[in-house]
Structures are given as structure tokens and as C-alpha cells.
Amino acid sequence: MDCVKAMLNTSRIEKCFGAEALVCFTYVKNRICHKFKDKTPYKLYLGRKPTVSNLKVFVCHLYVGTPKQLRNKLDLRAKHEIMLGYACSTRGYRIWLLDEKKLIKTCNVLFDESKRVSNGIF
To answer: Where is the Retroviral polymerase SH3-like domain positioned along the sequence (predicted)?
Structure first.
């Protein structure tokens, strides 16, 4: 739990997102080598190497694409949102929609890991 506390503290988000931090931590930990020298828990369980190219900074800024069917001609093509973790059942990410205050799963994103979440964004 110390790792989850550190993730919440460094990302400056509220403690109510602790479960999301725990799921994200577990997802990442299962895909990196530890204790077994050259094998990850993912490889030991599923028998194949995990893909790590999708790993991103916890609670990083991103832009979620808005489908053509849901926008007008003058609407923005993407909205600024926050990544809270990884979708387990599909390829993609768990995204917190700031305006709607809800969590969605999508892979239609563009990351901006250079920005940090400022205090009070949630």
C-alpha cells in the first residue's frame, strides 16, 4: 500500500481514487521483472511476454477524441482529460472525464506526459 500512497501523493489527486491507483499499480507491477530475475508475473501466468509500450505516467494529461457522430462541425475534436489506469478487459485506458465526472475506457487518446496535474483539478 505504500506504493499506492506514493502514487496518490505525487499525482496530487484525492484519496477517493485510491482503488484506481491500486489497480494501476498492480497492472504495472505484473509487467515488470522482480523476484524471478528474468520473468514477470505476467509471463509466469500467461506464458508470453507482456507488452509494455502502452505504459504511461499515472494521472497524466491526455486528449480523448470525440467521435464524429457526437460532435457538431464547430465542436472540438478532442477533450482534455486525465488517465487513471489501464483497461483490463480490452486494449485502452481508464480515463476520468473532468466535466462529466465519470470514468470511461477508450483507446482513442493522445498523451501529453509533460504536464503535471495541478492541485484542485479534481
So the answer is: 60-116
